[in-house]
Amino acid sequence: MVKVNIDGALNFLTENEVRAIDTSKPLSELKTLFENGWTKVPSGYNEKLANDVKSMAKKIQNESEVLIVLGIGGSYLGARAAIEYIKSPNYNILPKKTPDILFAGNNLSGEYLEQIIELIGDRDYSVNVVSKSGSTIETAISLRFFKSMLKEKYGPEGLKDRLYITSDIGSPLIKLAESEGYAYLEMPPEVGGRYSVLTVVGLVPCAVAGIDIDEMMAGALAEFENGTEDACYYAAARQVLYRKGKKIEMLACFEPAFRFTGEWWKQLFGESEGKEGIGIFPAYADYSADLHSLGQLIQEGERTLFETFVSFNEPRVNPKVPGGDLHKDKIAAIAGFDMNKINESAAIAVKKAHIDGGVPVLELCLPKLSAASFGALAYFFMRSCAISSLISGVNPFGQPGVEAYKKNLFAILGL
Ligand code: PA5
Question: Strand runs (DSSP E) across 225-353, as ranges?
């Protein structure tokens, strides 16, 4: 489903250089080391798992106008990415029959927390706390706030009914769920945080938002069955560019619905590849908005950047610019053009300008914004990220460097 095009990079690399990258070792490492991990998530999606997720989601939908999802990193970004991509970045303020979804536990700001509480107002709400380790400080602090608020509003029995836990088998959160009586779903232990969007971690909030999770997982399965060729091609092209001094990859999309998929992608690639003194720095740009902020730097700044454009063949809607004699200015002739044509023309124009300015452009093309294409793209990115990391010789799993700030914070707080 995901098509990779490297034409826009051919001024900077050759097809032969990309094909010459040996992906056989990374692929066999992926197979032997991670055979039962996230690589098998799409084929492991079965009726029992689907029913467990859907019945939890149905109960939340029936009882609540708002779902608060507590989590950070891989326990936050994937669900938010999927909801914005498949539904809308304006999901919460659009008319709908499903609960609002608010996210907390993704920072340490008291102000943010107070605003989330204000947004809930008098409405009925449930809380899904998501943490693989069950001990992440941001999530653990937010849980204390929401547990105490649920208890105060609904009493001890109501708290039991409205707090839902997603965590690793045997984690402190699962132990808490068992001892205090909360409903819980266990993550597959062999799936790492940033590779968990297609597990219960992402599926529960998505199902509450009314997303067809069967369609999403069918898209992931189709990409899984499609084989590794496209993922290898993208991974190899990235590595060739990196070896030629292109140290920063700017993922860019002309659909604002993609923004949080960009945020999720940053974590996936940044935490997986940035180790042992190497790693492509992952950045995200929301076009055309960011052409008016970062455009100058991309066009004429230091030549250490390459871009990866994500595009969609078919728009979900395609309004035409109103016009005729409505408004006379230098773009009056745009009247009657459809927005998709204009957006696509902008992508062509930007691609040409950036290539001419010395920025290689890779392209990933998908049919349209949908649950199926989200599942496919998420799987494609996880696979190419793991392959790319293994090509560069680092282990894509684990994030030892993240511990440094936590150690300092715990010491400062005397914990
Ligand atoms: O990829 C990872 O494993 C991490 O970035 C985690 O997602 C993040 O640190 C949150 O951890 P946890 O889910 O254990 O709360």
Answer: 248-253, 281-286, 305-312
Q: How confident is the model at residue 400, as a pLDDT?
A: 87
CB 40 within 8 A of CB 199: no
CA–centroid distance, residue 253 to ligand 1 (Å): 26
Please state the atom number of ligand 1 nearest to the C-alpha of residue 195. Answer: 1
Shortest-distance atom of ligand 1 to CA 192: 3
The pLDDT of residue 35 is: 64
Q: Are 411 and 254 in contact (CB under 8 A)?
A: no
How many angstroms does the Cα of residue 131 sit away from the middle of ligand 1?
7
Instruction: Tell me the C-alpha distance between 208 and 185, whole Å.
Output: 15
Ligand 1 center from residue 150 Cα (angstroms): 25
Residue with tokens 């509450």: 208
292 is catalytic: yes
244 burial level (CB within 10 Å; 0-12, 13-18, 19+): middle
35 in active site:
no
* Ligand 1 near 99 CB (within 6 A): no
Residue 36's pLDDT is what? 64
pLDDT of 191-210, one tens digit each? 999 999 999 999 999 999 99
Instruction: Note the pLDDT tens digit of each residue in 9-68.
Output: 999 999 999 999 999 999 999 887 766 678 888 989 999 999 999 999 999 999 999 999
Per the CB < 8 A criterion, the answer to whether 287 and 253 are in contact is yes
Percent of the chain with pLDDT over 70: 99
Q: Does 268 sit in the ligand 1 pocket, CB within 6 Å?
A: no
From the CB of 385, is ligand 1 less than 6 Å away? no
Q: Which of 48, 97, 292, 330 is catalytic?
A: 292
Fill in the DSSP letter of residue 400.
G
Q: Which long-range contacts (CB under 8 A, 24 or more apart) does 49-52 make?
A: 49/200, 50/213, 50/214, 50/217, 52/185, 52/200
Contact 78, 202 (CB under 8 A): yes
Residue 40 appears among annotated catalytic residues: no
Say if ligand 1 is within 6 A of residue 166 CB: no
pLDDT digits (tens, 9 = 90+) for 339-390: 999 999 999 999 999 999 999 999 999 999 999 999 999 999 999 999 999 9
DSSP characters over 329-357? STTGGGTT-BHHHHHHHHHHHHHHHHHHT
Cβ atoms 97, 133 nearer than 8 A: no
The active-site residue out of 138, 255, 263, 271 is: 271
**Residue indicated by tokens 């602090």:** 141
